[in-house]
Amino acid sequence: MKNSCLFYYSLQEMGSRHAKHGSPFTMMKNFGIRYCTAGENIAAGQRTPQEVVNAWMNSPGHRANILNKNFTHIGVGYAKGGS
């Protein structure tokens, strides 16, 4: 279920060139995923996973999400688009 949610969300993100994405919290609710606290890190334009992580760790907000001690689970979605 969670993987389906992430895959679906990744496809939605891929279709949006200007981060006009819906709320990840609404999507988790729609997929029946329960949570107490949640966050979101998205990326576009990097060529490798390492570039994505480097960009996140150099961003105070993204870094705070990654290091948040209240987050106990992670989900990762990936979609590769054309032009």
Question: Can you tell me about this structure?
Answer:
The protein is mainly alpha-helical. The chain has one domain (2-67). 45% of the residues lie in helices and 0% in strands. The chain is built from four helices and no strands. It has helices at 2-14, 24-30, 49-57, 60-67. The longest helix has 13 residues, at 2-14. The radius of gyration is 13 Å and the shape is globular. It starts with a helix and ends in a 16-residue tail after the last helix. The model has no long low-confidence stretch (mean pLDDT 77).
Number of domains: 1
Q: What Rg is obtained from the alpha carbons, in whole angstroms?
A: 13 Å
Q: Which secondary-structure class do the elements indicate? A: mainly alpha
State the end-to-end distance: 30 Å
Strand content: under 5%
Q: Percent helix among the residues? A: 40-55%
Number of strands: 0
Mean pLDDT, all residues = 77
Characterize the biggest β-sheet.
none
Return the string of H and E elements.
HHHH
Count of alpha/pi helices? 4
| Uncertain parts | none
Principal-axis shape equals globular
Salient structural properties:
83 residues, mainly alpha, 4 helices
